[in-house]
Amino acid sequence: MKAIFATAPGSPDVLQLRDIPKPELPSPHHLCVKLAAAGVNPIDTKLRTRPIYYPEKLPAILGCDGAGIVEETGKAVTRFKVGDEVYFCNGGIGDEPGCYAEYTALHEDYCAAKPANLGLQDSAALPLVLLAAWEALVGRASLQAGQTVLIHAAAGGVGHIAVQLAHHLGARIAVTVGDSKKAGLAHGLGAEKIINYREQDFVQETLNWTRSKGADVVFDTVGGETFLRSLNAVRIGGKLATLLATPLSLADTQLARLRNLSLCYELMLTPQVLKLHDERIRQRRILEEGAKLVEEGGLGVLVTHRLPLEQAAEAHRMIEQGGMVGKIILTMG
């Protein structure tokens, strides 16, 4: 089969297409899936540049997100049969092989049936961003109906899922975007307040929108100055959830303490990195809930670029240029 390997830390040029044997089943509980597509995420580019989890295991197949058809099942598999269409977030961080490949093997417990009304290739774009948004808004921030939430980079991969999830939860939504096209997308997904961060001060706009209180929850997918400035956009006693690890100065920490803020950090890869079997099953159940939402019309994933597997390096370059709308997928065959 064909697979894309990260051969060394570095630029997108370190991604190489190779022919390797199809994966064998590591246990009787594993499936072999013929992949239709792999999702491409910013974490892939970061792990290519700096493989922090398993640097000793290069070369490695990247790509956490996949969707495809079950081609083989282990003797103990009970949840799926040959021919089932599935999607999942598995591998791709340097240990278990990822999804930049024509086939992959994974434990049946980490696999979910794809949404019935979503194409097989597009399903590959959903798992990681759904898990990140769900874990941040539901798991960390406990976002409730009627609360206000500010979502940064609302047209991006995680952002556009977060807007839909917040809308499903009944929250009032403000977003930051960089242009009118992204504003239209966010409004169509349920955002009430649109803030163009290039032209407006998002802190002041959020205070104006909430009658000077600040948002109950801020969801940061950007980090850096956006995260630090968000300390003043959250209400007193509110929650700031972030996907990034932005350094805090003593003054920043004192400000967060003065405002009694809850700083909520979310890394949806934790169950995989720390090999927490029960937590990975819990995340699979989130994918099952997400599939129901898609089938009910409450959630969709926007795929804006489809590239063949061989163009993985170009997909990484596009993500690293910034300003992405929606998701990129790599297609097989």
Please explain how this structure is put together.
This protein is α/β, with parallel strands linked by helices and 333 residues long. It is built from eleven helices and 16 strands. Strands 3, 5, 6, 7, 8, 15 and 16 form a seven-stranded mixed sheet that branches. Helix 11 links the parallel strand 15 and strand 16. Helix 3 packs across helix 10. The termini are close together. The mean pLDDT is 97.
Key descriptive features of the protein:
seven-stranded mixed sheet; Rossmann fold; 2 domains; Quinone Oxidoreductase, Chain A, domain 1; six-stranded parallel sheet; alpha/beta; single chain; 333 residues; globular
Query: How many distinct folded domains?
Result: 2
Distance between the termini: 11 Å
> Briefly, what CATH class of the largest domain?
Alpha Beta
**Structural Rg:** 20 Å
Q: What summary fits the major beta sheet?
A: 7 strands, mixed
- Strand percent estimate: 25-35%
Determine the CATH topology of the largest domain: Quinone Oxidoreductase, Chain A, domain 1
- What's the rounded overall pLDDT mean? 97
CATH architecture of the largest domain: Alpha-Beta Complex
Class by SSE composition: alpha/beta
Element-by-element helix/strand order? EEEHEEEEEHHEHEHEHEHEHEHHEHE
CATH superfamily of the largest domain: Medium-chain alcohol dehydrogenases, catalytic domain
DSSP strand tally: 16
Low-confidence runs of at least 5 consecutive residues: none
Number of helices: 11
Global shape: globular
